[in-house]
Design a protein that fits this description.
The protein has helices at 3-20, 87-104, and strands spanning 26-34, 41-46, 51-55, 64-72, 76-83. The protein is of the alpha+beta class. The protein starts with a helix and ends with a helix.
Length: 106
Amino acid sequence: TSRFDRLLAIVQEIAAQKNLLHQDQIMEVLVEEVNPQDNQFLSGKCSNNLMVHFKGTPDLSGKSIFVRLVASQRFCYSGEQRGACSLRRFILIFMYERMLNCYMGF
């Protein structure tokens, strides 16, 4: 293999490890666009610049919503929409999921 291929493999491994740090978190996402290949999916970015792809409707474009980061891919996440909600509701969802994870032993 070439030097570039070895470097690319190292970069991909580091990105995968860093992305695992955010998995299963609920993050605020700015919805940027409808996926050109599949209009059921939207793309957006978290405040830390992570790209997230998730199911949603085109009317969410330009809005800020909460998304749970489900699976880490090479340089982005797939997520589940949690909806636009107040800070109070977000905290309740976050605390419930943390309690559930503790109960389940995660």
